[in-house]
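I had to read the description of the data format several times before I understood it. The format is easy to grasp once an entry is in front of the reader. For illustration, here is how one protein appears when written out as sequence plus structure tokens:
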Amino acid sequence: VRDCSPPRADLRKQARQLENELDLKLVSFSKLCTSYSSSRDGRRDRYSSDTTPLLNGSSQDRMFETMAVEIEQLLGKLTGINDKMAEYTNSAGVPSLNAALMHTLQRHRDILQDYTHEFHKTKANFLAIRERENLLGSVRKDIESYKSGSGVNNRRTELFLKEHEHLRNSDRLIEETISIAMATKENMTSQRGMLKSIQSKMNTLANRFPAVNSLIQRINLRKRRDSLILGGVIGVCTILLLLYAFH
């Protein structure tokens, strides 16, 4: 970058080049983290026949440090380019209301923010895996040392190893149980909403039942009254017919 402010096109070109480099670096960095975890899982599976320490100054660890430094340097350079683009956009020779320049600057800032977030997330995951493996490696090293130092305690060592595997399996089952519990909670929340809706409808129907019962009672009373009237008329007619017949 020259001492004087470079043209806008040069700044954008430099920004795109740095973004492309960062994209490639971050993809490789993510793959390194994934391969690191997979290689450690493979070593744990072969632990019964592997006497090499689980973690040492491996090429993956050195590669991680190197790539982290390179990505941080690229992020710093891209931050500087974005700052210069902001200065160019806010300079006296550029209209303050130039929407295109502001949109371009904001897009590059968003890209920088996404790359920074992805880098820190991947780096944190890698460090967490390495820290966990260091702890497990120390435990395994102690077990291996104890196993090799006392042949008469092989049975106890095997029990320790089995117990360790049981703990790992329990940890995995706990995670699965938590996932199931979260899904169950969501289903229960959904069902509770449905039950509340049904309860509201039932209350509405229950409030309407007294009016329906009152109407049915009125209908029954009218039918009973009509039956009595009809029975009285039939009785009077019968008596009149009998009196007419006997006279």
